[in-house]
Specification:
The protein contains 26 helices and 5 strands. With about 525 residues, it is α/β, with parallel strands linked by helices.
């Protein structure tokens, strides 16, 4: 019985291969070592404490899921990172379905799973709580239903596509890029026939209905998302040339995997055997051009590579049937796996920070920059994990220098959502009130009835504070040398004698970048 259970055929079957890579994905993403909560995680924790149909910059699903997880498992690194890791494991499984539906065998499956499992940007997303991991899941699932549609010609898959698209829109509206790319690609190929089917329109209606609560919330609040995206694009996203944008794609997806997805692109567009899936080739080019033109962050098209990896793997597997190309059966997969594993410390906490700083400057990922902030020895993805708990402690020190009467009416005003998130999560241990902030969703939550008679401010420059208060006193300087440059030294001020009520000055603290 044991011999049958652990027979060679079972251990090296396609099903076993999928299980191995799912387990590997979970291990890579749930590795129990962290530097601290990431800035965005602090923000999502605050959002999950204030559930709504929408937020300035985030649709409702991701905060809702976090609220459920925190209710069941508490607020810990494991609980925060469990769902992103599971979504990554699901993507590995869906990718295996895609490559099999495209006609791939064992070697194509192996190559696809390697590329999807150890892609650096995927590991980065799936080891932190953010909407990117879930966004990738919806993209991949939508692409899978497109594969089923193209291989079976069954229009009913548009219904499934619509459901996934609607859930994707409630997660991150960047899935609109996928929708636009596919629409253009369908119109450019014989697949335009699907626009004559009622199913595609029904699927679109379902997506719109699922998205409508968030859309109505945005309309009710005056479309703050438009203000956010405009400010973000003009003031925060790092501008890159088209060549740099494409280079970044190769780097974050694993440099050695570049020939795989490039082969997949060629397979879809030029190969007769791949013509069934030509829509994917055209859609990728449309999305890529649109991303470059709009100067979005380099990682926006990353979820699309799951299908490009599958197409490339199928094409390479067929090429490897020739005697002189047999080395392609295993060698590319092994090399990509080794480089992917070696890249893990550069995309998620694995090494002690002292060792990371010693070697991080030599990593190719240090040259990939999504925002305009000046970086130090640590990439932003790491730097934004340090100093938050100490910051709350230091604000608490200042708070406890106030008299009991002053504490009763004092508020904590921060400059950005990271600082506010630190006080939100860690401030309770120091008896701090919940923070107020003019950044993103915190702005809509307002000054919470505080008069402004006593304000503890951090992350706001002294000149701005003096414009609003007659008395501004620096009581402490928070220092975190591992943080981003603009947050290494932050003055903690006590402000009194407001020149006007805090409610009236509130719009002057607003920023939506």
């Amino acid at each position: 019985m044991g011999q049958k259970l652990f027979s060679r055929d079972r251990l090296f079957s396609e099903k076993a291969l999928v299980v191995y890579f799912i387990v590997l994905k979970l291990v890579l993403c749930l590795f129990p070592f962290e530097y601290g909560y990431f800035r965005d995680e602090l923000y999502y924790i605050a959002l999950s404490d204030n559930l709504d149909f929408g937020y300035v910059d985030v649709p409702p699903i991701v905060p809702f899921l976090l609220a459920v997880v925190r209710r069941l498992l508490g607020t810990s690194f494991f609980s925060l990172h469990l769902l992103p890791a599971l979504s990554g494991a699901l993507v590995v499984w869906i990718a295996s379905l895609i490559v099999k539906k495209m006609g791939g065998g064992f070697n194509a499956l192996l190559l696809t799973l390697v590329c999807v499992t150890v892609a650096p940007i995927y590991i980065c997303w799936e080891s932190v709580y953010s909407y990117d991991a879930f966004d990738k899941l919806w993209w991949t699932l939508a692409l899978y239903f497109m594969v089923l549609l193209l291989t079976t010609d069954d229009g009913k898959y548009w219904i499934s596509f619509g459901i996934v698209a609607g859930l994707g829109l409630l997660t991150k509206i960047s899935i609109l890029f996928l929708g636009f790319g596919l629409v253009v690609a369908l119109l450019a190929t014989k697949s335009r026939k699907y626009f004559l089917s009622r199913h595609i329109w029904l699927g679109g209606m379902i997506a719109f209905l699922l998205f409508s609560p968030y859309l109505l919330w945005q309309l009710k609040e005056g479309l703050p998302a438009l203000e956010y995206y405009t400010a973000y694009a003009s003031g925060k996203t790092a501008a890159v040339t088209p060549a740099e944008f494409i280079k970044n794609q190769a780097v974050v997806m694993n440099p050695l995997a570049f020939p795989i997805w490039l082969t997949g692109l060629g397979y879809f567009i030029f190969s007769k055997k791949g013509k069934t899936f030509r829509v994917f080739g055209y859609a990728y080019l449309v999305i890529l051009i649109l991303c470059i033109y709009l100067q979005v962050k380099f990682y926006l098209p990353a979820p699309f590579y799951t299908v490009l990896f599958a197409g490339g793997a199928v094409s390479i597997e067929r090429l490897a049937e020739r005697r002189r190309f047999r080395w392609l059966r295993k060698v590319p997969a092994v090399l990509i796996l080794l480089l992917g594993l070696a890249s893990v410390p550069f995309v998620r906490p694995v090494l002690p920070v002292e060792i990371l700083m010693k070697y991080s400057g030599r990593g190719v990922y240090m040259g990939v920059k999504g925002e305009r902030h000046r970086l130090g020895r640590l990439h932003q993805h790491f730097a934004d994990r340090f100093g938050w708990e100490v910051m709350a402690k230091n604000i608490g020190r200042v708070y406890h220098t106030l008299s009991k009467e002053e504490q009763a009416k004092a508020c904590v005003l921060t400059g950005n959502y990271g600082q506010a998130g630190a006080v939100w999560l860690f401030g309770q241990a120091h008896h701090l009130p919940k923070p107020i902030c003019g950044h993103l969703q915190y702005y809509l939550w307002g000054p919470k009835g505080y008069s402004g008679q006593v304000v503890i401010a951090i992350g706001i420059d002294e000149h701005t504070l003096k414009d609003h208060f007659k008395s501004v006193q620096l009581l402490y300087t928070h220092v975190c040398l591992l943080a981003l440059r603009y947050e290494r030294y932050l003055g903690i001020y006590v402000c009194k004698e407001p020149k006007k009520p805090l409610e009236d000055m509130w719009p002057e603290f607003k920023h939506m970048d």
